Amino acid sequence: MITRAHLEALDRADPLAPFRALFTLPDGVVYLDGNSLGALPRATPARVAEVVAREWGEGLIRSWNDAGWIEAPARIGAKIGRLIGAPAGTVTVADSTSVNLFKLLGAALDQRPDRRVILSERSNFPTDLYIAEGLAALLGRGHTLRLVDAGEIPAAIGADTAVVMLTHVNYHTGAMFDMAAITRAAHAAGALMLWDLAHSAGAVPVDLAAADADLAVGCGYKFLNGGPGAPAFLYVAERLQQEARFPLTGWLGHAAPFAFEHSYRPAPGIARAVVGTPPMISVAALEVGVDIALQAPMDGVREKSLQQTRIFAELVAQECPGHGLRLASPSDPARRGSQVCFAHEHAYPIMQALIARGVIGDFRAPDVLRFGITPLYLGYAELWDAVQTLRAVLAGNEWQQPQFNERRKVT
Question: Is the Cβ–Cβ distance between 290 and 226 less than 8 Å?
């Protein structure tokens, strides 16, 4: 039986505990939504203020050179590369995850001109599917998005598959693909492999080079703690860069941006994937979060994540039996990312009641309570407190109160 005293002992022995002090978290809140929006690093406000007041306010346009603004996408991209097993020169910071996905899918289809299928899983994150649908319709050459269940992916990769597009850790359940095995299956069929790392980067070990991945995208505002709407990143394997042709080509992806030539010439390497001017205030905030992630040993982060997801699932089973909760994540902790999800027919009002009590997770339609596990700032005893709050909400039927059943725009 798990007790709070046992979890307090784990907190005292936790080698990652000092990282909690690097984040600003409100008193009385158990934050279990870092897989949607990461917490605020304490150093971020000062860094943003420095960019605004000194680099912009005093340096003005000179800061593109003097403060290193123009090199920031490549510099931070290289740092992110260290978190995802990507060699130098293969990652850059740019745009949003959706825009980057559009660019990479377009490049992938261009490199497989005789193939017309983008293959993905039915439960992939909707925006990934929307981008693929839109691109296929825009091309108008018989391209199509084919969806199958996750377990059917390897067998569904065929001679007509141009690119396999998957999210490494599923947003809805936390289920995690075997990146190396799926990539091998794609390559064996002659297809390219594109991974969405939105729920992976900074949360679970990723080694794109070892998996021989072709393409990848990811966001900066979840486990990288870059702030709401933080810039995203993309990866292109070095072997593909020279021939990569992106459907969006902008001036900063030009070989000589300040020559202001009237025809596009792609920059060498990953730089050609950049489109427009980087949003430097947001880029600076992102770098703070990335630097913190680089300080933490990923093996230690994963070890704590595995332990915390296991404990949380077991605590819910121990403390909340008979209330209709069903584990929606894989039962094996090693097969899930850094989140635990439960299905319940009244998931939305239950989550709203939890949030009102200071336990912040989120809801995903149609019936999932989603709890993100962020080892750098989440303690073990907080898991106990969160589950006790869940137990109280369920036992007292608090979720039935009218205010908790009124749907908000963001769930």
Answer: yes
Q: Which residues are catalytic?
A: 125, 196, 221-222, 370
**Residue 260 annotated in ligand binding:** no
Helix (DSSP H) and strand (DSSP E) numbers for the chain: 14, 15
Of 276, 295, 314, the residue that ends a domain is 295
Domain with 352, as residue range(s), is 4-16+297-405
What's the CATH number where 95 sits?
A: 3.40.640.10
Q: How far apart are the first and last CA of the chain?
A: 33
Is 277 annotated as belonging to a binding site? Answer: yes
Tokens of 225: 């703690």
Report the amino acid identity of residue 50: E
Residue given tokens 């990866």 in the structure block = 235
Contact yes or no for 135/108 (Cβ under 8 A):
no
Domain end among 295, 326, 361: 295
Would you say residue 411 has pLDDT above 90? no
* pLDDT tens, residue by residue, 274-327: 999 999 999 999 999 999 999 999 999 999 999 999 999 999 999 999 999 999
Number of domains in the chain: 2
Residue 251 annotated in ligand binding = yes
**126-156 pLDDT per residue, tens:** 999 999 999 999 998 999 999 999 999 999 9
AA identity, residue 255: A
